Amino acid sequence: MMKAALNVLPRLLALRALALLIVFSAAGLGTAPAHGHDIPSRVTVYAYVKPEGGRLTVLLRVPMEAFSEITFPLRGPGYVQFSEADYALREAARVYLTDSIHFFEDGQELTERDVQALRISLPSNRAFTSYEEALENITSPALDDSVDLFWRQGLLDVMVTYPIDSEDSEFSVNPQLGTLSAQTTTVLRFLVPGGAERVFNYVGNPGLVELDPSWHQAALRFVSMGFTHILEGLDHLLFLFCLVIPLRSLRALIPVITSFTIAHSITLIGSAFGLTPGALWWPPLIETLIALSIVFMAFENIVGAKLQHRWMLTFGFGLVHGFGFSFIFSDTLQFAGGHLFSSLLAFNVGVELGQIMILLLVIPVLNLLFKYIVDERIGGILLSALVAHSAWHWMLDRGGALSQYQFQMPVFDALFFAALMRWGMMIIVIFGALWVMYELFLRWSLIDRINWPRASGHRSVNQHLS
Prior knowledge:
Structural class: alpha+beta
Order of helices and strands: HEEEEHEEEHEEEEEHHHHHHHHH
Strand content: 15-25%
Number of strands: 12
Strand order of the largest sheet: 7-8-2-1-10-11
Distance between the termini: 109 Å
Number of helices: 12
């Protein structure tokens, strides 16, 4: 009896495994998309926005492969039946576009909209190179059913209008088109009534975007960007941390932080006005040097820093960090409208506010740590060693990426010498700033030397200065 049961048990286990396999297979088939549609990895959306008279006209072009849940009328092996596609196109425009992009006039959302025209275009169509060509293409007759076009290769062109009070109002947009693909890039052109054109090129959902911002709107946005960037930039934070470890009073940090601020402001402003090389190796070179600056400052803390001259070293590394800030700023410069310089200043203000907040948080923590938990010298060495360890790996990784680029001698033409003159102007500004800070900090140190004996009552002023 027992032997028979043992013989049957493997069969029962095999049958149960087979049943589970069938169930899971059926479940997988049941959840598969009806058309096997997949979300594309990358999609580029093109848009024109033009206020004119009493309406805001929006022209959109989106690859149809992004409409994974829409069933289009097909013929043959999967060609679009254009004459029967109007309903599906309107549904795609509503679900994926008009419900996901929100326009505002003077802060009030434009809720009334009218889809004026829809049209499928061939992938070879280049109508969206200008507003006039895009408008003419969208309002032209639909393609004939004799055209063979797989639906995933088509481009959907949409014309949407919104009633507005005035074309001179302040317009903004909150596009939420990031779900069209894993990486959605949008190229949006806003046609200002005066004839200018604002071009925006962003990835994902950028939040609320002022299409033609005033100076204070641009300034507020860039203050926020600068503040956020300094808090999210771990390499900049570690550099500041290395500065704070041996100097834990605001008075002692003033020369160092001031020199760092002036230095990165010079290179950031210079980069915004085109003084940086356009070579591909430039960004990885700067990122490698930023990591090197952290390693150097950390090792200086370990071996013993000469704090009275540290502001000079900080100034040199600040020039490098300014180029690093410029990479972020150049990507967001499109949101400045016509207010480049005020946005530059606002970005710097945001960075400085972030630095001040970091200092106000870190200095008390370090003072308590060195007072109650660990000896100041030992604690400074341990913390600096930890920072150096992380920055050393960054430096090696970034240096490895930098080594993949080929460095070529520049072409000594008119453009080279024009760039050389601009760099010469920046060098003059750098040395001028160094001279001013040297005179200022020299007097600062003299005042400290004079006040110290008076407070301590030990030596005379002349003895101390000698």
